[in-house]
Amino acid sequence: MFTHTGGFETMMRHRAFSRLSHVRHRHRERGYILLFFIFALAAMIILLTMQADTSQIERQREREAEFIVRGCAVAKAIARYNNAGRIAPLNPGAPFPLKLSDLTREVNVNGQRLRLLRPSALRDPFTGNEWRVVRIGDPLIRRYLERWSSFTGQPVPATYVALTASIINQGGFGGNFDPSEGMLPRPPGADDNGNGDDDDDGFAAQRPIVGVVGSIPKPAFTTVFGEDVTYDTWLFMYGPFAARPDGRVVVGTPCERLVLPIP
Asked: Exposure winner among 34, 64, 130, 237, fewest CB in 10 A?
């Protein structure tokens, strides 16, 4: 009887041990599966984050490319407005626009009615809002010219130094400019219909526009004159020419890096 009881107890202990081992094994398997899912989820999150970052970078690059195209278009339009329809360095003694919308109106160039700028170029592609204008005397002009001088190794022309002044004495600036007929003066602060200017900047809004910049303080991928910039400090202004020792002229502006023969 004792032997039988002892064998029964042994068998029960063996069964209990087997069940415990089986339970531990199942728990261990579940732990491995849970750990696998945790690692898989972490890997998926990392991949999705990398993909999102890549997509965001690509979108920024695309917008930056359009940012450059539109900004350069505005800079060239201002240069043409300032030079009777020709693309040439800015002349502080000639008319400048007071509003960006001045560039989208029709003008007479050699008997042809043309628009200097398409309306869609008036907006910063990053924000969808109108460019922030840079008027004569803005500190960004001085910084631009310092970069230009460092990049080209040339002194800044006096005509461009004049653009850093708060006030330029010229016969009149802004207004309804017609390259074939000269300037059609309008009262200071008047809009296209002769009404008062809606800007709240007072006298500042009556100063000539020489360029535009973006609005967001985000670093750009492209360098300007070899230096890193943010979109809110990237000035699009038609720059001066720089003469090279070989007798050729470099258009020292982010809009054009062409090498042109001296006329």
From this structure: 34
